[in-house]
Amino acid sequence: MAVEAGEPADVLRLESRPVPAPGAGQALIRVSATPIHASDLHVLRGRYGFSLDFPAVGGHMECVGRVTALGPDTEGPEVGERVVFAAIPAVPGGHAVGTWQEYLVADARRLLPVPDRLSDFSACQLAVNPLTALLLVTRELDAEPGEWLLQTAAGSTVGRLIIQLCRHLGVRTINVVRRRDAVEEIKAFGGDAVICTEDEDLSRRVAEIAGPVGVRKAVDCVAGPVGAQVSQALAPGGEVVVYGALSTHRQTDPAALTIPLQARSVIYETKTVRGFWLNRWFGIASPEDALRALSQVRRLVADEVLSIPQGRPFPLERFAEAVAFAEAPAHGTKPLFVLRDDQAHEDM
After folding, report:
1. Which of 39, 55, 86, 214 has the highest Cβ tally under 10 A?
2. DSSP 156
3. What single DSSP character describes residue 248?
4. Structure confidence by residue, pLDDT tens digits, 305-323
5. Is the overall model pTM greater than 0.85, yes or no?
């Protein structure tokens, strides 16, 4: 529970609350596992795209658990069924339900049954990063086989999922990384080409790799000067979808939260720069469309087209340690709150 907006380590408290009762169209979920995303921490800081009414339970993205009760007149998964809850608040509208708790009440239309072969560690991460990768590649940009797709932060969780998905679809990727020692790692992971901004010029390397046809589609989660360079590197008529701003996450000065685009390139080459935010997608998509997309992600993960790192488990009692781990540079794995008994831990 966060008592007010602020640094998570300062405002989070462990508290006991009564088990809630589900209403019409709702289900009571006994949470098994839920991740700690960077966006969860920015929500607590009051620096995300939606605000909370404090005090509030942390975690506003996703979790996995079992249905323990259904509200009146509720259709959906049966009691005892294991489900993923896509807790991402829809914008506009929607109520933020914190997932960092043992029991929560969920909209039954946001619940996706998961097969036994998917571990809790994988299932609790289905609804954010894999879904983001799928929507960016197949809906936002409609990338086709043989096309080049340029992406920044290729070593991030979403970046690696995009590489996997593009290989499955026959889309070629140009992957931007910051460090030279990441180049071979991304190539080994399946990236077709890699550009290291530490010692390479992004626009020049894109031209060398893609040749006269150029690149018309890109995704960026860095923003700042790197995001501007991506736009500059695109062929005329190209578009870049910005879904994050890693370069600005520690910034508090609004003037620093920018992408310094070159007007001549945007105007005379008719390029497009637009945003994507999963919360707003949920605000536009129908519940049926959202479940279809989540079901597609579930198939891709179950068929091992997309692989989700297992993550590092923490009990809720060690929340301070888990948050510190989430903030540590290059920790390489995502912390997860695990809320099950010892036997269940062994089964995971």
Report:
1. 86
2. S
3. G
4. 999 988 999 999 999 999 9
5. yes
